[in-house]
Give the backbone structure.
Amino acid sequence: MAGENSSVTAEPEKERLLNQHKEKHFTAGDIVRDIIIGVSDGLTVPFALAAGLSGANASSSIVITAGIAEVAAGAISMGLGGYLAAKSEADHYARELKREQEEIISVPDTEAAEVAEILAEYGVEPHEYAPVVNALRKRPQAWLDFMMKFELGLEKPDPRRALQSAFNIAIAYIMGGLVPLLPYMFIPRAKDAMVASVVITIAALLIFGYAKGYFTGNKPVKSALQTALIGAIASAAAFGIAKVVHP
Amino acid sequence: MAGENSSVTAEPEKERLLNQHKEKHFTAGDIVRDIIIGVSDGLTVPFALAAGLSGANASSSIVITAGIAEVAAGAISMGLGGYLAAKSEADHYARELKREQEEIISVPDTEAAEVAEILAEYGVEPHEYAPVVNALRKRPQAWLDFMMKFELGLEKPDPRRALQSAFNIAIAYIMGGLVPLLPYMFIPRAKDAMVASVVITIAALLIFGYAKGYFTGNKPVKSALQTALIGAIASAAAFGIAKVVHP
C-alpha cells in the first residue's frame, strides 16, 4: 500500500482515497453505491404507482398486484441491465487493452509521442518528460498500464463486481419497493392505506436521503429533503395523471 | 486540438477518443448514453407491469392507468434523481478542487511527493521523474489539473450537462414506456392488447438492443438478443408474480 513507501504523505484520508482509487476490488463504497442506486428508485416508483392507483380508486388488491409486479420488473431491469452494462464495460476494457498492447509493440514511437502529448498538456517541456517516456518504453507492462489509465482513463474492472453489483441493486430495489406497499397488504381500503403509505414512505425517504448524504459527502439534511421531495413530486405526478386517465 | 500538434498520431479514432476525453463538453456520445439509460428501463418495466396486470385479469383501463402512472413516476425518479446525482458530483469536484488548491499552497512538498508516487508506480525512477515534478511545481494551475486527474481521477463536469442529461433520460424513459402501452389504448380487452404489446415491445427491444450494441461498440446482434431477453424475463416474472398475488 502507498502509505508504507511514503512517510511524507501524512494524510490518512488521501491515502485511503489513493488506495481505493488504485485497488478496484469490491469495496464497502461499491456496496453503498449499489444500495443508493437501488433504494433511490425502489422507494420512489412503487410508492408513486401505488398512490396513483389509489387516487384512481383501485382496490388495495389491485394496488398490491401492480406494485409487486412493478418491483419484480424493476429489480430485474435494473439488476440484469446493470450486470450487462458492467460486462460490456469489461469487454470494452479488454478490447482497448489488447489494442494498446498491439500498438506498443507495432508503433512504439507513436505511443511514446502520446505519452509526451499527455505530459506536455501540463506544461512539461520535452527535455523534462523525455526521461519519463524512456523509462516507460523500457517497461512494456507499466507503459501499458500508464496508457490505459492516463490516455484512455480506463480502470481495470473486477469481473465479480458486475454480478455482485447487479444482485445488490436488485435486492435494494426490492427492499425499497416493499416499504410503500406494506400498508396496502394490511389495509383493504386503498385510500386509507395510501395515507399510511405516504407517511412511512416519506419518513423512509428522509432517513435514506440523510444516510445517502452522509455517505456521499453531501450535506445530509439537504440530501434528505431533496430525496423526499423527488418522492413527493413523483407521487403527485402519478396521482394527478392517474386521475386524468381514470377519473 | 491534439491533432494539430502531433503529426505522429495518425489514428483518427484515437484522436477522437483523446479529444472526447479531454473536452468534457456535451457530446453526441452523452445524448446516446442518456437515451440508452432511459429507453432500457422505459421499454422494460412498463411493458412488464402491463403484462403482469393483464395476466391478473385487469381491464385495459386499469393497465393504462397503472402504466402511465408508472411512466410518469419513473421518468421523474430517473430524471430528477439523475440530475441531483450529477449536481452532487459537481459539488464533490468543486470541494476536491478547492482542497487540492489549498494543499498545493500549504503543503507543496507533500503534493510533490504524491506526483512522485504516481509516476513511481510505473517504474519511473526518482532521477527520471524529478524534472517532471519540478516542472509541475512551477505551474500551479497545471499542477492542480494534474492532481485532479491523475491522483483523484476526477474530470471537470459541465454544469449544463446535468440538467440536459436529466431531461434526455426522462424523455427517453417516457418514449420507451409508451410503446408497450399503446395497444392497451386501442384494444379494450387487456389479454388481447397484451399479445399486441408483447409483439411490438419485443420488436422494439430487439431494434433498440441492436442500436445500443452498435453505439457502444458491442456485437449488435448479441446486444439485441440480450436486451429482448431482459424484457422477456422481466415480463415473465411480473406475469407470474401477479398471477400468484391476484389469481
Q: What stands out?
A: The CA atoms of residues 48 and 233 of chain B lie 9 Å apart. The longest helix of chain B spans residues 60-106. The radius of gyration of chain B is 25 Å.
